[in-house]
Amino acid sequence: MHPLVFENLSEFKSFKGKDLPKGEWYTITQQMINDFANATLDKQWIHVDEERAAKESPFKSTVAHGFMSVSMISKMLEEMFLVKSVKMGLNYGLNKVRFPNPVPVNSELRMLSSVKNIEDFANNGIKITFNCTIEIKGQEKPACVAEFLAALFE
Predict the structure, then answer these.
(1) Contact (Cβ atoms closer than 8 angstroms) between residue 31 and residue 62
(2) Which CATH number is 17's domain given?
(3) What is the pLDDT of residues 100-132, one digit of tens each?
(4) Distance between CA atoms of 132 and 116, rounded to whole angstroms?
(5) Looking at the 3D structure of the chain, how many domains does it have?
(6) Which one, of 141, 40, 127, 123, lies nearest residue 91 by Cα?
(7) Which domain covers residue 97, as residue numbers?
(8) What's the per-residue H, E or C state across 68-87?
């Protein structure tokens, strides 16, 4: 997949209301889940104890943290579009987040996203609201649905 390329924020503003390209698939490995558990100190057995999860979990394997899916949104968006004039971007927050489906280890995820809204922002910036859906390959229900906000600055 090649990202959409915009020269500047003014050109990107014309993309309001449109879909971004489909994202690349990412395999969620046990190492990624363990690293996230270590970073967040959330080491609940359902995430990190492979033997116990295989025996006791209704999913028969470990599952990724819901917040791990959300934390991948920035990276996934970065691969969908590029604004050449942007000097920096910041995560601005989330309006809504839901985790409709667990993500078993070794699942493949990708993101579908659209630009819901764009507002002017201080310091030569814009605030963008993205509708984001993180799909699980082969599953009907997504891993995560979120309204994600970012600020970009020229």
Answers:
(1) no
(2) 3.10.129.10
(3) 999 999 999 999 999 999 999 999 999 999 999
(4) 10
(5) 1
(6) 127
(7) 4-153
(8) HHHHCHHHHHHCCEEECCCC
